[in-house]
Amino acid sequence: MIDFKNIHIGQIIEKRVHETNIDMNRICTFLKSTPEEVEQMYTSESIDSYTLLRWSKLLEYDFFRVYSQHILLFSSVHKEKRSEKNKGKNSSSPLPQFRKNIYTKEIIEFILESVNSGEKTKQDIINIYHIPKTTLYKWFSKYNANPQRAKD
């Protein structure tokens, strides 16, 4: 499972390369890199966005989603402060405005595992990540494989 709190993108890329069994020559050709540079990327905690985009295309995996999930889980704590600060202001930003959070299967599994392992309670999840109570309970009824441990 991916540690969404402490992302080491090089290790995640390396795991995906092993899953897909892509040859090093193909990787080097696609990325226009040497084998040494590729190995160095595997040890890097962060990679520039253009290179990450190339990896995403080559390995057919959205590595940017890992960062999106981090934002969903760990930046939502300050959401209330931001909305208080911006109340009354009209947003005229030319950037796209996203209406709601999209929870991936990995996020749902992470949340369910946190509760099932006893690391967090359902109320902790609601308070920390601002996931609506009804959404959380739907996840437990739909996805939870271990309902005995998740009761509280």
TrEMBL record:
Top-level taxon of the source organism: Bacteria
Protein name per its UniProtKB record: Transposase
